[in-house]
Amino acid sequence: MAKNVVFNQEYYENVMNEFGYDPIKFGKINFSLGDLSEEDLQRRWLCHHDGDIFASDFSDGEPVIVITGFGLSGTPHAGTLSQILRSITLQKAGIPVHMVLGDLDAYNGKAKPLSETLELAERYRELVQNLGFDPNPPSILRSQYDALDVLRTAYLIGHYMEDEMFSRAEEDLHEMYSKNGKVDADMSYRRKLSLNLMTADFIHLHTEKGFKSVLVMLGIDEHQYVQFGREVVERMKQNRNIKGFDMVLAGMYSPMIKGFYDFPKMSKSFPQSGITVDMSPDEIRKRILEGEGHYDKPENNVVYQMMAATSNLSSAQLKKNYEACLEGGNQWDKAKREYIDMLVDICAKWH
Question: Which domains does the chain have, with CATH numbers?
Fold first, then answer.
């Protein structure tokens, strides 16, 4: 997969075909999960691998959990909010969710000062709970810095990793990040440590917490991280000295929110591309009304994508806004202005 990418239907179909994510047909998920129907899942996620196995295990009463998280490279943006809101959606449907605040990932992978990442972790924790995430068991909300037992798991599973595995695990926008000085150009030792720890975040839930199936929820651009973890899991299964290791590591990926002003992705590393929670209402309004950039249909329109991912809109409201975006004009302008008010209220949860 080329590293200079545009997140559109062609990109999604290429990824799903190359890696065999189910189903191959664009935009469809073929199972329900808890109280969420197939249609509910399809509105929020793009594709999966072994998500149907995870859903079956959940239905059978097996111990399962979804895991997600984000690096703390800066103030949360709308893409971060979308992952938090998706997590809350899963919780409300009865699915346990483990949310990881990646303070050590930012320290090593993004070379952020440790004091800064630890402070951000506490602010993120407050935001997540203000938005409605329930941190009580069986769900989990934690930072990496505070989980010393997971660091031990990271060391132990390092036995099943090889250098060449790391080189295949770059996210799809790595080249853009590295050219702009946001991350190391090569898979440095620091970045390997971050990926090792992320994989431990997944596997620890099985080896130490007793969850049979773990479903990783990330954006589609980060799917290679889960492929890396699945390879480690398979290597561990082949070791006859590990007793009782029978983990299912599944993945479910959301489509990317395009950046404003034609950035390929909304990213904290490129401030103009997104909306952050600390922006003034006037700044949010200007970006939504003026920063749509070029698009050929609502699926590729940054504002409609945000409505679908970072809002409390109902299915009927989304359908109405889809048609308004398709036609443009006064109805689309009205829908955008109504969404601005909703988004301002969501961003106000960041103190």
Answer: 9-254 (3.40.50.620), 279-347 (no CATH)
